[in-house]
Structures are given as structure tokens and as C-alpha cells.
Amino acid sequence: MASRTRISLPQARRIALAAQGFSDGRPDAPSARHLTRVLQRSNLLQIDSVNVLVRAHYMPLFSRLGAYDRQLLERAAYHPRKRNTFEYWGHEASLIRLDLHPLFRWRMARAARGEGVYGGLARFGREKRAFIEDVRREIAARGPIGAGELSIGGKSRGAWWGWSDGKRALEWLFWAGEVTTATRRGFERLYDLPERVFPSSVLNAPTPSEDEAQRELLRLSIKALGIASERCLRDYFRLDVTDTKRRIPELVEAGDLVPVTVDGWSGPVYLDPEARLPRRVQARALVSPFDPIVWERTRTERLFDFRYRIEIYTPAEKREFGYYCLPFLLGESIVARLDLKADRAAGRLIVHAIHPEAAHHPEDLAEPLAAELRLMADWLGLGDIAAPKNWTRRLGL
User: What are phi and psi of 319, to 5 degrees?
Assistant: First the structure.
């Protein structure tokens, strides 16, 4: 058996950063073309309801492009004629490249059979078929509408997870691909039928088999990651363990995955055969907790020697770094984490805390960090930056 190519950890790090576009530098005037380029690399943007700083799907574009116009993404997501993404379950709830819609139809078909969705929703789908069909007919007659506008929706049960039956029916239909997000009102989904939202070129595109769709999703995953373990590959589009283990040997045999070894990594590791290995990466970016470069936390720790957990759901007294900490990527390293909040009423970007990593001295971080914070504040329309007292002078605030 031929020996595998050995990749050093710094090489693996540069490959991963280049695959995610961090080696390119930011454009002077970000345009729709630049946004499309990011989407071509990442394939999707994760959506999350947390809005303490800015909605999650906006941040990966800022990290790579700088202060872009957020309306570019709004048009790409929801404009009737300029839409080039759709909402579905990719890596959690996501905005996914519209041309990839056929690759998710197998997941929609499984959901329609009650597979691949969480137990309560699957049970609801089995027991409430007639009600779900009534909801689908109402969307057909009245869409696009929100869950609260359904005439047969019923009332929610308390907190935001206390869904009404109407909302459950819509979520089941969404999983099954029978309704989609036409647009959003604030952060609320407005549902409609896919045939009224997507162009015919997408709707009429051939549907690949499950096996081929999964292979293609894994091909896209390795190109987006550059280098990855089996766990990282399946995590990107949240594929099942069983499906992934079947597909990987097929992709290795086809030459789409190249087995390699990486210093300090255990288990099989795979390389994109077309991966770029820049001589160095000179990145500067605040990175969202929902950014593909840090999605898989074990990979983040291996690549950057950076143990990262989001502490939103940790009781305040047990938080180590803060409610909404963003890693700060500088060069090829994650050098600090910042607990940030946008105080929109006061027009202020609040830096609750700055935590440099052990190997990085605060004085060396101050200038690039100040530049990134000012860029973010300007992008968010915030005129002021408030930082901890021990950092105010360092940052020149």
C-alpha cells in the first residue's frame, strides 16, 4: 500500500482558510459578484435567531468581504427575480445556493416519509395528515403568509418552541419541500408553494438518486473545507453517519477525496484534490459562532488550538468568556475572542470583554483589532465603540 501524503498542521490550516476564502483579501467595493463568489465556496449560510450583534447569515460575508451592503444578501435570498438561494435544512436552517435544490430532494422525500426529522414532528406528520393537507391548501390559496395568519392554525403554547398546530404543519411541509420561504417579515417566515417561488429551471432540474446527491454534497463539503475528517465532511450538510460511511469509499475510489495524514490528527483525513495551499494567509476577521470555519468545534480545536463553545445557553454565572463571543482571526491564527453586542438604540458597538489567547500579547493585537471593530461598527451603522477600560487606550478609543 502506498504511503499517504503527510500534511503539517500549518499547511492544513492554510488549506482550510484558503478553501473558505480567507486568503483572498477583501475587495474595495463589495458587490453582488463578490457575494456570489463567497456562496460558490461555502454553498450555504447558516440562519439563527440570535440577534445580539447581527443575524448569523450576514456575518460570514462580512468576515470575508468587509463592509458590504446587506441588501445584496436580501436580494439574493428573497428578491423574486434576483433570488439565488433558498431556505432549507442544510447545516441546520440555512440559505442554500438555489442551484443545489435538486441535491436536497432526497432529504425532502425522507422527511415526507417521517424520516430524518425529530420525533415529535414525525409523529405529528403521521397523525395529522388531513390537517396538514388543509394547511397546504390554505397556503396555496393565500400565500405567502406567516404561521400566525393561518385561519386554522390555532394558538402557540407559550414560548417560541411552543408551536401551534398550524406552525407544526408548516414545519412538516417545509421539511418535506411542499412549502418554502417566499420571504421574511422581520425574522418571521412567510410561506408559499415552491412553484410560486422558484424559477422553472430549478423546479424542472433532474432529481439525482440519493446516492449521487449524497456524493455530490460530500464533494461540495471537501471543496468548502479543503481538508477534513469524516466527521467534518458529514457535519457540513448534516449527513447521516451511515450514508457518509457508504459514500466516502466511493469518493476515494473516484479520486474526489485524497486520504492524507495530518500531524496531530487521529483517524482518516481527506484532502480536496484541487485544494490550494497558499504560502501564507494574511486574514483579519471577526468570525461568527455560525461560520463554517468554526462550525465543527473539534476541527476548530485541531486546526487552531482553540477550544470554542458558544455560551448563549450557559447560565450567566457559569460563562467563561461571555454571552456572544466571536473569535478574532489574525493571519493564520485565532488570537482572541470578543464578547460583542450591538446597542442599536444608543448607536454603540459594545465590547463587553476581550480575551486574548495565551500566546498573543494584547499590545500586538490592539491595532488590527481596533481596525476590525471600527469596520464592524461602521457596517452596522453604529457611531461609537465602548470597550473595557483596560482596552480603551490600547484601541485608541
Answer: -70, 140
